[in-house]
Queue: 4 jobs
Job 1
Amino acid sequence: MPTVIFNDGQNSGGGGGGTVDTLNNGLTLTGTNGQLGGDLVQDTTITPNGNTLSIGPVDITDGKITSAATPTNPTDLVRLEDLPAAGLSGADNGLSVAGSNAELGGNLTKNTTVTPNTHNLNLGPVTITDAEATCSAAPANPTDIMRLEDFDNGLSVNGSKIELGGNLVAGTLIGIAGHSLELSDAASATHFTIQPTQVEMDNRTSGVYVQIDVTSGTANMSLEVIATTHTQSFSLTGAGGMMVTDTVNNKGLEGDADFSAAYTANSYVQKTYVDSNRGSVASAKLSGISASQNLVTYNIPVSTPSMYRINCALVQRAVGASSITLTYVDSAGNSRAGISLASLAAPGATQPATVCIYCQNGTAISLDLVIAAGAVADPACTVELIL
């Protein structure tokens, strides 16, 4: 085992201390010489104790660190080009001064980037790498890390968690990009699903299912209601009434088949059904008539419903009296004749009239003009079937 000789010429084993064969904690053994240099193996303090420790251009005393010149590579110690020769007097951009120490802490004064460069930066339970930031445990106060209370536009904070829920404060787009988005309530088994070509809403427990299909390229939309355990129905409600607007084909609502065989008293009927059951609507519009005559006679088919609307108008051209009278057989079989609908005597006067009647099938409706001598009138009459 070698004996280490120090520069003062004394044997390391002098004074009964024995020999030295190992040096560490910043010291190395080269041959028989102990030299400054090597890894620290424990926390180590060098106290100037009123003296000056000089390392190249850097002087360390009990009170400060000074540099007589900027080193070739200033990162060997600190950013010495930022350190005045008089010592550390201030710090900013995330650093602060405590006595003669520069400490992490303070306001950022410019945009600052800290790059992990394949290493980990640990801030309490938060670990930041080049790719991500992770948290090993939820902090007691989540705002110690970030402003979680500032989440909005459909997001909210619950304790240390960010949750979906809250008011939208801006126009927001969620692109499904060929996938489906499903919102479900496990308690009621209600699902709302958005897919690229359709929107679905269903309750899988009760079997109620609504689907809106929007097929690309055809500009068609279909609304389907399927109920496996309930009466199938489809309803539109509105406080101000419902209006159908068709600005493309101007056809309004159109059925894809003839449903007249199952019509009820409240069915919304189709045009073909109306046309096939109304028959001919009798009408007459004349002018300058000076003699009494029949204006309209409409024969009621046996199979046609028996409610009719009578519209008439009478314009008196000259002195004298004229009137339009109605004759028909009501649904009880009673003959009603000469019922006056419009009657005028003053020249230039106009009188319109509308009346609805129930007639007996297989009879006739007659509208007659009764005019006095010297009178001239312009009558107009219409008989219209009401379904």
Note: The chain has one helix and 25 strands.
Job 2
Amino acid sequence: MAIKWNRSIGYNLDRYASMKMKYTIIENGADCYPWHEFFAIFPRKTVTGKRIFWQKAYKRKVWVIWGSGYHMEPETQYATAFDLLVYDNKHNP
């Protein structure tokens, strides 16, 4: 999308903020970790989109590549035991 000239900066920022950016998750890289157990004291969002709070869960660190591959940043993923079964079957056929 091109910038709309003769419009405010806020208009263009709102326009680009509504777009969904492509991203790729690296799960088996050099600095990625396997799932390990922890207790979710604070609310967390799982890989399937559910919220968990005050229960046993799993977490791991992965790398996310945003856009066309020039920007990488670490991200922590959270899951319950049932989420792991569903998530692994979807992403590892």
Note: The chain has one domain: 21-91.
Job 3
Amino acid sequence: MRREPFFSEEQRKSPTGRGSNPRSRANLKPFKPGESGNAGGVKKGTVFIAEAYKRLLALPVNEFSVYKPSSIAEQIAMEQIQRARGKRPDADPLPAAKEICDRTEGRALQHIAVSDNAPVKVVFEWVDNGLAGEGE
């Protein structure tokens, strides 16, 4: 399905309207070669634990048992998977399995049971000075 452009060709070429201010256009500068557009963001090559879980969980069992982790994230993921499989006698496997599921599949929905069919009021409060309770 083809979408219509948000602005018509005439609107884009118009000297007035969105983006027509000379100061607005002066701020548009291309990045220099080798310069990132997300300088303060996540660095290239960053290994996320959730991605390490997904990669390791996709391995066949015989490959997983001989796999050598290439990063700390993979090492942490391997240890958690081993706990979840019951390979660590000192650790309960259930919390590890829950952690892996939460990271790879998203947290499960939590339902609230209301016994008397009364309306439920949920209040979200934005606090300007950080977390609620700080600075009070």
Note: The two ends are 54 Å apart (CA to CA).
Job 4
Amino acid sequence: MTEVENSRKIDTKKLDAIIEKNKRNNEGVEDLTEKDLLPSPNMQYIREVIFTVDDSVSVSDIKEIIPLIAKRFVVECFQIAIDRQENKAHLLFDWYDRKHGECVYLYPSKKLEFTVVLMRELKLPHTEESRQWLKRFLIEEYSHDKNIFRSLMEGLKPSHYGVHGYYIMRVLIQLGEDICKGQAK
């Protein structure tokens, strides 16, 4: 995923909030500078999210997951486009949290979670790069179905894998569950 830089402008709501807070606290506001009021590069109000999709993903498919993303990450998607020549989806998001009056900031772990949710919900193929996120994919699946590992374990049969393969599969399933529960790394 990539993000498009947005021009930095003074946030007048932030300025008004700071002035009001300082008035209530009887503090001076003369120390405020324009630099104090500019969003940092990590706090952009409009961001573009771009990702590769296959031919089966439509704008309607993406629209269906927008409420989930809005609820989970407090961002609002206001434009969706798919470039079919490059098979890339372009989504524009408003990263301003109106409830709290501030820009939404996603830490790297939350950005990764955002990516995993998009990939899971749109059933996008895992890329070579996404292999490093396997733990996050497991945690996301586990958050949707706490019994997933129990179901996998019950479906195992030694005849499918041989004695050693069966043992390895049981260990891997147990390890996956332990990782999701925070009991293993």
Note: The two ends are 26 Å apart (CA to CA).
